[in-house]
Design brief:
Number of domains: 1
CATH superfamily: Divalent-metal-dependent TIM barrel enzymes
Largest sheet: 8 strands, parallel, barrel
Radius of gyration: 18 Å
Strand order of the largest sheet: 1-2-3-4-7-8-9-12
Number of helices: 9
Number of strands: 12
CATH class: Alpha Beta
CATH architecture: Alpha-Beta Barrel
Helix content: 40-55%
Strand content: 15-25%
């Protein structure tokens, strides 16, 4: 299948949403979603009805793939057999973009969480080597995601410095998650606006926006199980203003509301993109 690049406003494709999406399409004929995202781990080797459901949608819409288990920062050997399976999956469904978390999730077994990588020169070298090898196998650039974390790892540099150095040396792309910037800014006491301004616009492949759970005034848990809050919408608007337009999708992993509510949030992404495009046109800035 020909590789299709995403554009506009997207939504995370979850099996629980297939029925509501089908019902919407039966009633309205068109769906106000420009593209979808899936985790390959949840679909590789899937047969029967679920495989048929996925094929129906990848034939109609562009998709991106967001990995869950590659463990770029881990010390277990890179799972190259898995990456070869991922490449076949991406090619089969015409998926142009594969992304992963800038974290690790394995240590003599799967940890079932995304752990922060120590912000050190040694870790930069280690991660960059693994990104290079990943890109060789998948045959396309890898987009790494800035992740949320709850314990600040010891290191020789800041989170931002570490991220920028990995992007530069690996010559890879960025999946920019504005919710994760907000979460880390609150949890670790840094300036979200300053972090966002330092992001190299030319590296941004696409973006995530999501909801979270505020446990304490200074502790946010990144859950993807609630509506997006105003400060995160503001940060997303600022990202478009500073870095130009790029595709962004809404992540929702559980506690699903009626589909209409999710589509309203997808529509809010589109509204921000439209507003940014209008601002760019007035100022003569490329979007």
């Amino acid at each position: 299948m020909k590789h299709r690049h995403p554009d506009g406003a997207g939504l995370g494709f979850r099996r629980a949403l297939v029925g509501p999406l089908d019902a919407w399409l039966e009633e309205h004929a068109a769906l106000p979603v420009d593209f979808f995202e899936i985790a390959p781990e949840n679909w590789l080797g899937m047969g029967g009805r679920f495989a048929a459901d996925l094929r129906r949608y990848t034939e109609k819409f562009p998709f991106v793939a967001h990995g869950l288990s590659l463990s770029l920062g881990g010390f277990e050997p890179l799972d190259e057999a898995f990456l070869h399976r991922v490449r076949r999956f991406l090619d089969e469904h015409g998926i142009a973009i594969y992304s992963e978390h800038l974290s690790y999730c394995s240590d003599e077994g799967h940890l079932y969480d995304l752990m922060p990588i120590p912000f050190t020169e040694e870790a930069v070298v280690h991660v960059v080597e693994r990104i290079h090898r990943t890109q060789e196998i998948i045959g396309r650039p890898l987009a790494i995601e800035n992740v949320s974390f709850y314990a600040m790892p010891e290191g020789e540099m800041s989170e931002l410095e570490f991220l920028l150095e990995v992007l530069r040396r690996a010559d890879c792309q960025l999946l920019l998650d504005v919710n994760n910037i907000h979460v880390n800014a609150v949890n670790h006491g840094y300036d979200a606006d300053e972090f966002l301004r330092a992001i190299p616009a030319e590296r941004i492949s696409y973006g995530h926006i999501a909801g979270h759970y505020q446990q304490e005034e200074d502790l946010i848990i990144d859950t993807h199980g609630a509506a997006v809050i105003d400060p995160v919408w503001r940060l997303q608007s600022q990202a478009f203003e500073q870095h130009g337009l790029y595709p962004v999708l809404l992540e929702r992993d559980f506690n699903f509301p009626p589909l209409e509510e999710l589509l309203r949030e997808v529509g809010q992404i589109a509204q921000l993109q439209t507003a940014a495009s209008a601002r760019n046109s007035r100022s003569g800035t490329a979007g």
